């Protein structure tokens, strides 16, 4: 029969692996993530904007973003993220996340309208960073 102390020692590895599961490296890296938002603020009834984003090592995806939609993901603060957009005969490409520029921010917001691409870190103060181009 197992004594109480035997059971205790048998439980140590179980408790240990459970604890390390809770403190996995993903968990520790969490604070270095920032939330990226790309918000389609084109005029009502516009055709969707096609937007595709990737970082140097991760493919984020491609969306047909309708007016009012928000394309959002968690980015690693230390990576550069590129996006490109098509809207009718217009196109654009820009850095959705730039490690030096966005260092220490919790979120990066992009407002896309007919005048171009506007950056904010608080979803309220916007600075124009890029414009639509045509051939
Ligand atoms: C950003 O601001 C707009 C307008 O105030 C609001 O509708 C939207 O929910 C906000 N988005 C986030 C992610 O805070």
TrEMBL record:
One of its GO terms (biological process) is rejection of self pollen. InterPro entries: Self-incomp_S1. The keyword Ribonucleoprotein does not apply. It is found in: Secreted. Transmembrane segments: none annotated. Residues 1-25 form the signal peptide. One of its GO terms (cellular component) is extracellular region. Keywords: Secreted, Self-incompatibility, Signal. Pfam families: Self-incomp_S1. It comes from the Eukaryota. Belongs to the plant self-incompatibility (S1) protein family. This is Putative plant self-incompatibility S1. It comes from Rosa chinensis. The lineage of its organism: Eukaryota, Viridiplantae, Streptophyta, Embryophyta, Tracheophyta.
């Amino acid at each position: 029969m197992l004594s109480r102390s035997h059971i205790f020692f048998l439980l140590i590895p179980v408790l240990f692996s459970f604890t390390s599961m809770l403190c996995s490296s993903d968990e520790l890296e969490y604070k270095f993530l920032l939330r990226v938002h790309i918000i389609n603020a084109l005029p009502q009834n516009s055709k969707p904007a096609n937007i595709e984003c990737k970082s140097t090592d991760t493919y984020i995806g491609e969306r047909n973003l309708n007016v009012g939609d928000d394309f959002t993901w968690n980015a690693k603060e230390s990576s550069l993220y590129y996006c490109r957009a098509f809207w009718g005969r217009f196109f654009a490409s820009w850095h959705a996340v730039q490690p030096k520029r966005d260092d220490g921010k919790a979120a990066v917001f992009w407002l896309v309208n007919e005048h171009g691409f506007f950056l904010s870190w608080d979803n309220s103060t916007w600075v124009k960073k890029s414009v639509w181009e045509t051939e």
